[in-house]
Amino acid sequence: MIRLTDINKRFNETTPNEVHLIKDLNLHVKKGDFITIIGSNGAGKTTLFNLISGNLLPSSGSIFVDQQEVTNAPEHKRAKYLGRIFQDPLLGTASSMTLEDNMMITHKKGFKWLNISLNKRMRQFFKTELIQLDMGLENRMKENVNMLSGGQRQALTLLMTVLSNPKILLLDEHTAALDPRNAAIVMDLTRQFIQDHSLTTLMITHNMKHAIEFGNRLLMMDSGDIIIDIEGDEKKNLTTGKLISMFSEIRKKEFENDEVLLTR
Question: Which CATH class is domain 27-55+66-81+168-264?
Answer without folding.
Answer: alpha beta
